[in-house]
Every structure is written in structure tokens, then in C-alpha cells.
Amino acid sequence: MTPVIDQLGWILALTGPGGRPTLGPALSSPRVGAMSGQASYTEPPTPAFLFDLDGTLIDSVYQHVIAWREALTQAGIDLSVWRIHRRIGMSGGLFVSALMRETGVRLSEQDIDSLQQAHAREYLKLADSVLPLPGAPELLADLTASNVRWAIATSSRQVTAERALPMLGLPADTPMVTRDMVGHAKPDPDLFLAAAAMLGVEPEHAYVVGDSVWDLLAARRAQSIGIGLMSGGYGREELERAGAYRVYSDPADLLSRADELGIRGLPIRNISDPHAASPS
Amino acid sequence: MTPVIDQLGWILALTGPGGRPTLGPALSSPRVGAMSGQASYTEPPTPAFLFDLDGTLIDSVYQHVIAWREALTQAGIDLSVWRIHRRIGMSGGLFVSALMRETGVRLSEQDIDSLQQAHAREYLKLADSVLPLPGAPELLADLTASNVRWAIATSSRQVTAERALPMLGLPADTPMVTRDMVGHAKPDPDLFLAAAAMLGVEPEHAYVVGDSVWDLLAARRAQSIGIGLMSGGYGREELERAGAYRVYSDPADLLSRADELGIRGLPIRNISDPHAASPS
After folding, report:
1. Most buried of A32, A213, B142, B225 (most Cβ within 10 A)?
2. Residue B122: inside a domain, yes or no?
3. What tens-digit pLDDT sequence spans chain A (280 residues)?
4. Does one domain contain both B196 and B250?
5. Is residue A227 part of a domain?
6. For residue A180, with 0-12 CB atoms within 10 Å meaning exposed, 13-18 middle and 19 or more buried, which class applies?
7. Total structural domains in chain A?
8. Is B252 near chain A, with CB under 8 Å?
9. Do B219 and B135 share a structural domain?
């Protein structure tokens, strides 16, 4: 703690709203004792970040929505587009189960397989239009530069997810857990537990950053702190109700306010206009 | 008021939670007087319905999102897709103003015109994939059969909006107010004020049904009661916070629970599985 911050601490403790003295802990217990030596405790580790991919780092949710819609139409299944959107980011198996329950359609194992292949094929057609979300490359680069550990954890398959790495300016050995590597995808916590293990951190010392309620449920089940991004299309209220500690617009917004998460030592960047931020 | 309902009224008034007597108005003033004759008052009219079109009656929001994205990309403007989604349903002029303010891009009158033409062209390419939302044709048919007045009020132009009529099983002379017919589109109240005038009803005796916060702000400014549908992709919480009195999933869900809005005499339909409802 630096003297400047102590000085501010005293000022904040002595005057509340309207300049009246407050009765905070700093006044009710002697401050000098706390200043004269270090308290004895185990310092918590610097938090790590576990990032979802689609809608969180890359702007691909709507391409996935359209690809699912096209695959379902080809299979003769009519499902409103907003219902597809709400399922993006959850396990494909759960998606298909929900689909069968909601529509009453019965699908064989082979039908399900064809459906998932059709989705992958349709998504690939649209993949060239996918861009990084504003601030995503900068956020990851700045965390790395500040020795904050992070990993990607996505319900997508390796073959789809690895396409995102070059666009984010990341090397092929970026820590990333995909659907192929775990027993269950979101909202089960497996992906985030595996990503934390890959980094060698405890999940309870990690922030999970995601755009969907499935990320936030998985975060709670992993004992991590959920952070919501609106860049996948969910509204702030919905993410908050699902347990997000903070909700940001997109990675650029998170980066510009990372101090709120207790992240120290990030480089100073001029990202006052996050919408204008472009990938490096 | 039927004797059955009076009977229930007495039971509800006499026993509160846990069976304890309550002290409602029915007990504190003599009930017999109210039962022995008709009270003297001006009966309110049956409420009318003013429906938004895109995302409310037809499943076209995502096609509009993709069309705007394509038009913006052609103009060299990179805007995250979720930011486009949040603007669907608002006036095109306000959309472009917000776009310029958020991105810092400057557009001439001619640029704006080209952008809107590109959107119309791209939307037309996707228009064949647009379907009615579940229950929309049935809801409108049932309201008509029950002599409940309704109209459509959309920020779209006539040339785009009229494509929806045959798909909803509606004739060309369906009461519909489009962007071409009013001074300002949503969230200004003009479209709903004009639709109410077209029906000859006061806006304060109308429900405005829409999928976006722009519909709900326009409803408040028109003194109408806003009803939200989630079928355009907004979440329940966001629609409620914007002032929706009730939020339904889609037109089928509204129809199955129309009694909640005090609508009487609708035909009995078997729509227990609203997702399976298909256009007639």
C-alpha cells in the first residue's frame, strides 16, 4: 500500500457524503497499528481468467445461430431463431435434447449426427465473416504482458475453435480446452475446471468470462467468479440474474475497467472509444 | 358478474393465507348493496391490440441483423453484431445517428441513403427464409373472430412490410401503419398513435405488443400498456425493465394466456405445445 493511497483512505474514511464524518472501521479501531507492520496471513494468488470463446472473444454467435437454423431447416425442423440463439454455447447434446423436448421431434443417433455435421458445414460457410470482438486481442496481450494467467474454455470442437487463434493474434500452443477434451460441455463445469487445471490454479481463484447464462452456471458450479459480456446478445439483466458479478459490453469495455476486478499493472492504453478498437 | 364469481369472491375475501379472515373491502362495506343492482359508471371499451411486426408476428429479426451487418461491411464499417441486434426495430434515422456517434464514422446523406438501400437489398435476399412466429396467424384470427380490434404498426417501409401479410393469412387491406405514413418511427409514439386512430380507439385503451425496448418506450409515450414478446431475442428482464406489463415467449404463448389480459370469448384451441404451433 503506497502512502498516496493511505492518504486517500484517510480522507474517504473521515468524510462521507456531504462531508460528514463517517464511522467506518478506520475510525473505530486504531489505524496506526495497521500501518506500523504487515498483518500475518496467506496472500491470495493473483486471479486467473478463463475465457469463453464464441461471443466473448470472437463475434461468431450470430453465424452459429444462422448455421443451426439452416441445419434444422434442412432436417425439416422449424424452430424460432431466438430459441436457437438462447442455446448457443451450451453442449450440443443438451441442445438436441432440449430441441426434441420442445418440438416433440424424435431424432435417432444418426439424425443427431447428421444435424451436427450440417451445422458444422453451414458454420464453415460463414466462418470467413467472423471477426475478433473489439478489444479481445488487446485484452489477452495485456494480461500476458502483466503475468496474469488466462486460458480459453469453449464448448466448440478443436477443429472449429482453433480457427480463432490466428485472428486473435495467438500462437497454436495457447492454453485452450475444447469439447473434445472433457466429459461434458457447459453448463457443466468441466471445461472451466480443466482450464484452471491446465493453468495450475484453483478454480475459486479464477474469473470466468462469458457471454451466456451457460457460462455463468458453469462458473458457479466451478466455484469461480462469473463475469458477463453483452457481446453475445444477452442483456445485462439476464447475465446479472444468472450470477455475473460484473457485466461489460465487450472485451474492450472489460479492459478499460479491469481495475474493478483488482487487476494491477496493466499497460495504459487509449481505449476511450472501445467501439473503434480494432484487432492488432 | 355471475353468481359463481361472486361466490368465489366471498370465499377469497373471507379467508386469507392460512385460512385467517381478511379485512378486504368486501368485508368492510356491505356486499349486499353491490349485489342488488348495477353500479353507475362508464364501461371501458374492450382493449384493442397494436402489434409490432418484425420479431413480434414474423421471425425476421435475425435476417434484418444479418442484412445490416452485410450493408455495413460493404460500407467499410465494422460494428459488432449484437450492437446491430439491439437497434432492430428503431427508426433507421436514429440507427444511423447512433452508428455514427458510436463508431466515429461520418456519413453523408448519400452514404446513409446507400446504406439503407444496401440493407433493403440484402434483406430481400434473405426474405424467403422468413416465417410467421408460432401462433401469430392463430392469434390474429382469434382476435378477429372475437371482435377484438387490432392493427399492425411497424418501423419498416410499406414495400417490405406488406410481404408479411400473405404469410400471416391476412388480406391486403389489413389495418397496418408503416414508416412511410408517419413523421417518426419508434421509439417515438407516432406509429402506435396512428394505428390507434386507424382503429378509432384511444391509445390508452390499447395494448402495444412488441419484442423490443423501442416498442415499449413508444408504448409508454402513447399511454398504451406495453406487452413484451421474447421472440425477437430480448430477455424477459430487459423487457420488464422497459415497462412491459407482461412478457410472453411468442404469439402462441400470449394466445394461450390471453385471459391474463382480460380478453374474453376467445375460441378454445389446443395450443398446449406452442412450439409445435404452425401457421395455418
Report:
1. A213
2. yes
3. 344 444 444 444 444 444 444 444 444 444 445 556 889 999 999 999 999 999 999 999 999 999 999 999 999 999 999 999 999 999 988 998 898 888 889 999 999 999 999 999 999 999 999 999 999 999 999 999 999 999 999 999 999 999 999 999 999 999 999 999 999 999 999 999 999 999 999 999 999 999 999 999 999 999 999 999 999 999 999 999 999 999 999 999 999 999 999 998 898 876 544 444 444 3
4. yes
5. yes
6. exposed
7. 2
8. no
9. yes
* Same domain? B53 vs B176: yes
What average pLDDT does the segment B228-248 reach?
Answer: 96
Chain B residues whose beta carbon lies within 8 Å of the beta carbon of residue A128:
none
Chain center to CA of B25: 35
- Same domain for A56 and A182, yes or no, is yes
Does any domain span residue A171?
yes
Q: Which three cell numbers stand for residue B38?
A: 348495477
Nearest to A150 by CA among A213, A218, A224, A259: A224
Q: Are residues A242 and A152 in the same domain?
A: yes
Place of cell 400473405: B166
The CATH number given to whatever domain includes residue B91 is: 1.10.150.240
- B190 to each of B92, B158, B177, how far by Cα in Å? 15, 16, 10
Q: How far is CA A207 from CA A220, A267, B147, B203, B241, in A?
A: 10, 20, 56, 48, 28
In this predicted model, what pLDDT tens digit does every residue of B258-269 receive, in sequence order? Answer: 999 999 889 887
Give how far B99 is from chain A: nearest CA, Å: 10
For residue B133, which phi and psi values (nearest 5 degrees)? -75, 150
Interval B144-177: pLDDT, tens: 999 999 999 999 999 999 999 999 999 999 999 9
Question: A interface mutation test: which of B54, B82, B216 has the most A CBs within 10 A?
Answer: B82
Strands A176-177 and B225-229: unpaired
Running DSSP on this structure, what letter comes out for residue B72? H
Kindly provide the ipTM of the predicted complex, given to two decimals: 0.79
Say yes or no: B235 and B111 in one domain. no
Per the structure, the complete domain to which residue B87 belongs is given by 61-128
pLDDT at residue B13 greater than cutoff 70: no
CATH number of the domain residue B140 falls in: 3.40.50.1000
Residues B176 and B118 in one domain: no
The torsion angles phi and psi of B6, rounded to 5 degrees, stand at -60, -45
**How many interchain CB pairs under 8 A, A with B?**
88
Q: Is B133 on the interface with A (CB under 8 A)?
A: yes
Instruction: Answer yes or no: do B146 and B222 share one domain.
Output: yes
Does the beta-carbon distance from B238 to A241 stay under 8 Å? Answer: no
* Amino acid in position A48: A
Task: Using a pLDDT cut of 90, give the percent of chain B over it.
Answer: 74
* Placement of cell 432436417 in the chain: A75
Asked whether residue A23 is assigned to any structural domain, the reply reads no
> For the whole model, what pTM was predicted?
0.82
A275: closest CA of chain B, how far (Å): 6
Whole-number pLDDT of residue B121: 94
